[in-house]
Amino acid sequence: MSNLKNPKELYHKDGFPKQDQEGPALQNKMKPVPDCGENTYKGSGKLTGRNALITGGDSGIGRAVAIAFAREGANVAIHFLPGEESDAEEVKELIEKEGRKALLLPYDFKEEGNGAKIVSETVKAFGALDILVLNAAQQIAHEKLEDLPMQQVRDTFQVNIISMYESVKEAEKYLEPGSTIVTTSSVNSFNPSVSFFDYAVTNGAISTFTALLSGYFAPKGIRVNGVAPGPVWTPLQLDGGQLEGGLESFGQDTQLARSGQPAELAPTYVLLASNDSSYISGEIIKVTGGSTISTE
């Protein structure tokens, strides 16, 4: 019997109700709660014995990737913003349930140097670092440029791109041939929303950084790729990530007429982290639900 499923019908199809959380937003309080593959992802040993660090790993896409990596056999360290401990503890429990080691790293990337600290702490705990997933981000929407605080711009660049430099510089000391780096940008890297004055620009920087790092690390036998998600239902949307009323139509303009769920992104990260993608480097994989993207 066929296991075919209509992708338009797989997950929540409508917009989302308005919901207020005092930041940082927690996944376990969202309505509906995002699907990160807790009950569905099945591993097959693709990452057995590896040691991974995932930034923004307590919720959303990072959480789904952490669960998938653990079920594929990896030890997983997850970085998260202080205040998100309840989400992080849930992920830790799920990782350890798979018989893998888990490490929680509560650090605010707005503070300079924390991107490097999480790498050194991961290596201290696990003895090695084989997979680095740079996924943490700040996204705050504004309708008018005149309303954009310059401190927000500085913070967004610090969190979204400068922390990546910190982590990669520190990680270079430990990454061996066969190791992988995976970045997260978004569709805004290609088609920037006019409400994301700073976030979209950092996405463009991340895509360029990914291509640059691929060329730099290739002679060392280390691959670097990125993922550009479309509209995905995560706590990022509740921390100022949408304009007023934006949740009601979130994801409805994609070809599949719905937002994505974090569980739908995780297999792409597994692919890029595993030997299955041994001839893929310098690529940005778009997982967008059919969002139209121009690369001209």
TrEMBL record:
Q: Where are the transmembrane segments?
A: none
Compositionally biased spans, kind Basic and acidic residues: 1-21
Tagged with keyword Nucleus: no
**Record region (Disordered):** 1-34
Look up keyword Oxidoreductase and say if it applies: yes
Q: What is its EC number?
A: 1.1.1.47
- Mind listing the UniProt keywords for this protein, alphabetically? Oxidoreductase
Any idea which GO molecular function terms this record carries? glucose 1-dehydrogenase [NAD(P)+] activity
Q: InterPro entries, alphabetically?
A: NAD(P)-bd_dom_sf, SDR_fam
The UniProt similarity line reads: Belongs to the short-chain dehydrogenases/reductases (SDR) family.
Name under which the protein is recorded:
Oxidoreductase, short chain dehydrogenase/reductase family protein
Record organism: Aerococcus viridans (strain ATCC 11563 / DSM 20340 / CCUG 4311 / JCM 20461 / NBRC 12219 / NCTC 8251 / M1)
Name of the encoding gene: gdhII
